[in-house]
Amino acid sequence: MTNHLSRRNWLRTSALAAGSLVGLSVLDKPAFGMKPFKGSYSLREDFFPPVANEIKARLSANENPWGPSKKAIAAIVESAAKGNRYVYNSSREMEELLAKKEGVTPENILLSAGSTDILEKVAFALCMKGGNVVSADPSYLSLVKTATSIGATWKNIPLTSDYAHDVDAMASAIDGETKIVYICNPNNPTGTLSPIDKLKNFCKQVSSKTPVFVDEAYLELLDNPESQTTVGLVSEGYDIIVCRTFSKIHGMAGLRVGYMVANPERIKMIKKLVRTEMALSVTSLAGALASLADTEFQNFTRNNIKINREFTFKALQKAGAAPIPSYTNFILFPIQMPSKEFTEKMAEKGVGVRGFEISGKSYGRVSIGTLDEMKLFVSTFNAVS
Ligand SMILES: Cc1ncc(COP(=O)(O)O)c(C=O)c1O
Question: Which residues line ligand 1 (CB under 6 A)?
Answer without folding.
Answer: 62, 114-116, 140, 184, 188, 215, 217, 245, 247, 253, 258
